[in-house]
Amino acid sequence: MKVYIKAWQNIINPITRKVHDEAGLRALDAFRDAVYEVDELTEAVKTTIIAKFEKEYSDFSYDECKIEPDI
Length: 71
Known about the structure:
Number of helices: 1
Strand content: 25-35%
Distance between the termini: 9 Å
Order of helices and strands: EEEHE
Helix content: 10-25%
Number of domains: 1
Radius of gyration: 14 Å
Number of strands: 4
Largest sheet: 4 strands, antiparallel
Shape: elongated
């Protein structure tokens, strides 16, 4: 199974200090091309993939990421 990492930086409202919700307010939606091949997608595998991603893109700062099947 191929999976990809979707990582983004959230836009923070400077007044409320909360993350904006909805309507394209994520500042960056990147690395859809960071694809990894796995046999199954478990929490341990996710941790491993995130660690690999962070090593490969050590100069990329992000707030959140999620891993999804590449279907």
